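Input (Glycosyl transferase group 1):
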Amino acid sequence: MHLAVVTAYPPGRRSLNEYGLHLSRVLADKPEVGHMTILADRLPDGQEAADAPNVRRVWDFNDPLSALRVLLALRRARPDAVIFNLQMASFGDRRVPAALGLLTPALARAFGTPSVTLLHNLFETVDLDRAGFGGNALKVKVTRAFGRLFTRALLGSNLVATTLPRYVKLLRDEYGAQNVFLAPHGTFQLPLPPQPFPEVPTVMTFGKFGTYKRVEVLIEAHRELLTRDPRARLVIAGSDTPNAPGYLAGVQAQFADVPNITFTGYVAEEDVPRVFSDCTVVAFPYNATTGSSGVLHQAGEFGRGAVMPNIGDLADLIQDEGYRAEFFEPEDPQSLADALWRVLSDPRQAAALGDANWRVASSLPLSDVADWYLLHIEDLTGTAPGPSPRAQEAQA
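Output:
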């Protein structure tokens, strides 16, 4: 079959870019997929990419016309089906382009391309203030109402996949959706045996920061850890979320007096293994959650334990998939320092958490999840395994 994937894509730095890269990679490796077309976000001026010929950069973040651009690209590509790799703000951090972009899967179906939407989060489970979409009470109420409207629009896809069982239940119970299935996040690569822990106790946090992921509490916890072990290191790996430009630069200036902190900036895909392998434990300084945590799956992939608040989607991953962590009270530096110390001060505990998470990650690689997508798509389209006539035509 000829399959298209609409996604943010490296070296662009938008949310879900790494997931889009790996999902399209494992799908393209399947014998059922004769041809893959990736409809990706355009890069900022001055940034270039050595994209493969099947990567077409056709839409822009915060462009109200993104839906039209994707539909035109689908019409030209003529795939047998399209997978949309989305979260609620994939098409913009402004309300109008974000909302209009979410109409694309239903429009693709209406114009004749079977569509599957992988939805990484739901409006109903997102703290809008902490995710950067807050405001006065009326604005939040209106945003919630439109959120429900656009969730229903996304359910206009032929199929909707979500990464957590709670999301499947919510969509079935509150929206009466019968076209929803569970597709776990999965691990990007089949994990190799973990690297040894570094000699210097090192805490690492990874992601896009400034809204619900805030590092002030982690730096205060690090300050406390230095009184227990002056060698302790903190690595803040990642960049600002689009909703909080300049956040990390401000934090770096505010805490310039605290030693042994490294701000890496954006971490390129090829550097991710080193960043995880060079730490003892991965910290999650979150005060809310917005979907299944890719960072927790990566911590498992590289055999590292986690220290996190027992909230929302993080709690779901512990319960549903079997990951292990030390817990702390959200926004409490002392509680976070104590939880980190339980790992840093006890090599056996660090190893036990890392080994448990590595085993979970090893049990469900993204390649296996891709098989589940293809089974649903073949059932949806009646496509037999192997290249379809449309795929052969597209490659001609």
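Confidence is low (pLDDT under 50) at residues 386-396.
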